[in-house]
Amino acid sequence: MGAPSSFKLLVETQAWWEGACAEQHIVTMQSPRIINLEEGWTNEIKTKAIDVLEEMLNNGFDKRSTRMFAPKEYVQTYTTCYNMCTQRSPYNWSEQLYQRHGETICDYLSKTVLPALRNQRDTFLLTELTKRWANHKIMNKWMRLFFMYLDRYYVKHHSLPTLDVAGLKHFKTLVYNEVKKDVVNAMIGLIDAERDEKLIDRGLVKNCVELLEAMGMGSLDAYVTDFEDQLLGSTKEYYARKSQEWVETDDTPTYLAKAEVALDAEKARVAHYLNSASEPKLLRVCEHEILELRETVLLEKEGSGCRALLANDKAADLSRMYRLFSRVPNGLP
Q1: Of residues 60, 59, 96, the one with CA closest to residue 81
Q2: 260 Cβ partners below 8 Å, 6+ apart?
Q3: DSSP letters of 86-112?
């Protein structure tokens, strides 16, 4: 039987905490001790949890079998945070811990993640980014678990971004916004390479698309603005060039056969790694460049146009012609 998923491990850890923390809370209530901010932060939270988490992310770990933090270790950190947030003023450190939660993530992104990305290009950049994004999701999840009490009370009371959302925003501001231009160019480069019948890592492109979707914070704004608009523009340029090559060298049936293959490939491309909302827009651009703008030339091409196909009873070619031009506004008349 396979090892449990990361999510299942977190659920198990959470369940373990429900029982263990109750006992810990009883002990705390019986013998309260004031925890100073620097003492709790440095000696407990940072040293025993955050530093350990960062080290595991930097050095790698087996996601299939490593629990990362044993339930007891997690409960110790959670309890420290809980106690620091429930002490009476002026020793209630909720505001300070919320601030340090954000500072910790920003510091790691600025000093560890960005330097690892700055010297990368093309496919290497995409590979490193998806690795760092996967690590960030793990970090964000554990930081949320460590500071969960803040989410339940302090965040709600002060109408602040949840820890999960705050972590996502930090990644977008510090990492994504700096590398997105190069990332999108690299993605489009791979897509164009696949159009030229080169083998690419589709999973890598899909992972990058998922990152773009996440950067929209619940919408497709980042995906559309940062990537899709440029993809449609590059697609227009690609097929303007290709259709010109085809129309100069091929007869009408050969051209239309290539057009059909290209349109089917674009539809499959969406299914493999793009957001499904891109399909109608992508196909419209392709149809316009490949069919609509070349319609008159193809239909009237000497020796292979519509009249020639009718005269020679080329049923299969006529069928393809009908099928393709039915996709274009006013294509059939």
Answers
A1: 96
A2: 320, 323, 324
A3: HSPTTS--HHHHHHHHHHHHHHHIIII
Q: Which residues contact 98 (CB under 8 A, 6 or more apart)?
A: 147, 150, 154, 155, 160
Render pLDDT for 100-115 as a digit per residue (tens, 0 to 9). Answer: 999 999 999 999 999 9
Give Dmax over CA atoms of the chain in angstroms.
99
Residue 287 CA: distances (Å) to CA of 95, 236, 251, 290? 56, 10, 18, 5
Left (φ > 0), alpha (ψ -120 to 50) or beta: where does 2 sit? beta
- Which residue in the block uniquely carries the two structure tokens 């960030």? 136
Would you tell me how many other CB atoms lie within 10 Å of the CB of residue 108? Answer: 22
pLDDT one-digit tens code per residue, 139-159: 999 999 999 999 999 999 999
Half-sphere exposure of 231 (CA within 13 A, CB side): 27
Residue found by looking up tokens 């969406």 in the block: 270
Which residue from 78, 44, 70, 76 is spatially nearest to 152, judged by alpha carbons?
A: 78
Mean pLDDT confidence for 204-223: 96
Cα 142 from Cα 292, distance rounded (Å) = 53
Distance (Å, whole) CA 272 – CA 161: 34
Alpha carbon distance 53, 27 (integer Å): 27
Among 220-224, 296-300, 301-305, 317-321, whose mean pLDDT is lowest?
A: 301-305
pLDDT given for residue 217 in this prediction? 92
pLDDT band at residue 8, thresholds of 50, 70 and 90? low
The answer on pLDDT for 134 being more than 60 is yes
pLDDT single digits (tens) 165-199: 999 999 999 999 999 999 999 999 999 999 999 99
Question: Which residue is associated with the tokens 């009249």?
Answer: 307
CA distances from 114 to 118, 184, 223, 281 (A): 6, 17, 21, 34
